Hints:
The complex is a heterotrimer. Chain A is built from eight helices and no strands.
Amino acid sequence: xxxxxxxxxxxxxxxxxxxxxxxIFAFLTGGTICLIGQFVxxxxxxxxxxxxxxxxxxxxxxxxxxxxxLTGFGQYKKIAQFGxxxxxxxxxxxxxxxxxxxxxxxxxxxxxxVGGNMFKLAGxxxxxxxxxxxxxxxxxxxxxxxxxxxx
Amino acid sequence: MVARxxxxxxxxxxxxxTGVTAGPLEKKSPFADKFDKVYDDERCGTKTNEHAHAxxxxxxxxxxxxxxxxxxxxxxxxxxxxxxxxxxxxxxAATTVGIPYLGxxxxxxxxxxxxxxxxxxxxxxxxxxxxxxASSQHNAVERQFRYPVEYGSQKPATxxxxxTAAGVATVTPYKKGFPSIECATIGCATDLGMTDPLNMGAAxxxxxxxxxxxxxxxxxxxVSDYDVIMTGDxxxxxxxxxxxxxxxxxFDVSEKFRDAGEEFYGADxxxxxxxxxxxxxxxxxxTEVIDKxxxxxxxxxxxxxxxxxxxxxxxxxxxxxxxxxxxxxxxMK
Amino acid sequence: xxxxxxxxxxxxxxxxxxxxxxxxxAKLTPAHTLCILVVAGSVLDGLGLYEPFIDFAGAGATIPIxxxxxxxxxxxxxxxxxxxxxxxxxxxxxxxxxGISSAILFGFIASLIFKxxxxxx
Lengths: 151, 333, 121
């Protein structure tokens, strides 16, 4: 049997990805996490001196704290199996990537293990975020210089 | 036809005893009460997953030796392997038990490849007692091949759960009343272009079907000669594919076909496609199959352990997944 | 007041649906998916669209990883406005420090407290 024929057979036999189910669960999980984020955000705006935009900083930190607890007690991976991208896309997913790597590599010590591996999953997000921010800001700066757009 | 990769053992070495240890989650397995030792702690009282991995293997070796009233000093060879970094768990276990040691690697097919090697050494007269087997530890394997254990990623229905288990067999010259090794087939590494590391069963199925075909035609056997033909860790998806491929070859795919990976955790859907890992086939072959042979339920069995020969590096570099399957035939005379 | 909660839920959920489609239809790994979403957030901010989006959806826009790209770009552009080209580099982490610093901090604390467990359910 050649590769093409086998690929076709494999597609037929392997269980299909339940796309509708995954999309709905991702929507509900992601929506719920953002809803909790909104409550946290409201909390900071009501009880501290934050505005809608500045409240995002402490909100993000708080959400990552929640992610730490859920990851440490072994619950985040269960939420992820259920919610898919719904738990990966929110900032808690970024936190989970960092925290799970930190816990896992504890056995190699805090310097080589935790320190050296903390960003092995999340590092690419930082890299592309930074590089993209650089390019976008550079283009905008140049365009402003030439008077095409304004800040 | 030149018998490439086919082995026949005239002296029919025997499997005089087996030792199987498993982790706490494996208590969910319908075969759990057959395991010799089940730990309550996934780190087996040690500090790291890797030490636990080595400890399970040591304990399995000691159990397999004690069943033939032996100590490590009586054994001639230790032939074991696993999947973690240069097989350090097996290496460390070998250091502790102190038996002359050859590390064996055929990924998850190591249970059979080491058994074949033990049979060859016994057949040659150089070994009177050889310990052969394989092990895997979920956390240690998972963090090496996939993600940190606590990382949240959605696994598809085709993905398999690496078992925490170690299984070894004590291979001796022919002994009446014990399963004996009659012949074997060394597999060819096959690659049909599968790339998904979360669907290993599909990658391994062609290797299993190829080895099955080569064993049956090469040794002049038929499916009807066996009481059971059991594969290692194809899982639900891989097992279906393998049966389809075997059916296409004209074999009568019947109830005789079983897969250790598919059956390991019973019908529990949380394990998705089933079990995998070097310890999966070792644990089931050396309990369920050997026990049924000793009880007289099975007279002749064919065991085909399957392994995916990938590394995290080869996968990230975009390579396809080559796979291997080795077959060994046991009889109860 | 209540409407911002509903909007946050729906918008946040929809961004996750985009992520799920990238997983299941485009067959991307989680890492690839998150990188694409971060870049998308960055580009949207470059076009001046992300801040109004936050005003509209609240946490629905700030919690998904897209806001990380937005924050990086926003910091870079704010500094560039003040100091020219140099600011593009120096301002990068001005706004977004909380996400990274809290992830590092809590990651380290977690490694002090927790051990991983291979439980299935």
